[in-house]
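Summary for the steering committee. One of the milestones for this cycle was to obtain a three-dimensional model of the protein with magnesium ion bound, which we needed before selecting residues for the alanine scan. The sequence and ligand used are listed below.
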Amino acid sequence: TPLLSIQGLAAAVDEKTILHGIDLTIPAGETHVLMGPNGAGKSTLGHVIMGDPAYTQTAGTIAFDGEDMTELSPDKRSRAGVFLSFQAPVEIPGVPLSSFLRATIADRPGLEMRGKEFRRRMKELCAELDMPPAYLNRELGVGFSGGEKKKVEMLQLLLLQPKLAILDETDSGLDVDALGVVSRGMDLYRKSCDGTLLIITHNTRILEHLDVDRVHVMVNGRVVHEGDASLIDWIDEHGFERFEQEAAGDS
Ligand code: ADP
Ligand code: MG
Ligand code: MG
């Protein structure tokens, strides 16, 4: 069985249907990319997989590790091993980043660590990501740039070691430094955790150093095209127009 198997998924916000029958399968250990024009429903799909209560699943199934997740709360899905990057960690003045990260694994069986072990692990991760460890003493989210938020996401990802990581890369304003951290983080996650990735993006630069197995293209709430990694270069050159025209012709 594939790690993630989505069939006939439809979802709505405030009675408005946004996802119209999505089929998407991700085998364990693979790196998949979800692309599509702005407003296609890519982020919505990520939120629906995570069980975000802002969205109503109106049809279809989402099976993870062979189990239907439809009735599970976001917390249960997270504990089952699904991770969705959120772009803006909350600002909590006075709480250092290290405490926040420690809390995210505090009640996870198999992940809890003693203080000393946690500090050693964080030092290791900072070295691997090429981040100054002093960063961990910063107050959570306060004055964080887009790139700094990305670094926090990568630390979370590598601490939690989820089975499936959905990374929504809508923020294209990353500097070279942050792009490096994201690339290194994804690579470490794939190799050291044997992780499975779904990267949502229209920023193809983030994909340059990744070994991509499959690309899914979404338009108007539907997956309209799929292909191998060569599709990324094709989209870089031609954009989404052809897919949008085909989708308009079909409906
Ligand atoms: P993408 O990530 O591909 O740019 P989104 O999933 O963000 O697309 O949005 C798809 C459509 O759903 C858009 O028309 C957007 O306005 C709408 N939408 C998404 N989330 C919400 C929400 N929470 N409330 C209202 N409309 C939403
Ligand atoms: Mg592979
Ligand atoms: Mg989006």
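Key point for the committee: The two ends are 33 Å apart (CA to CA).
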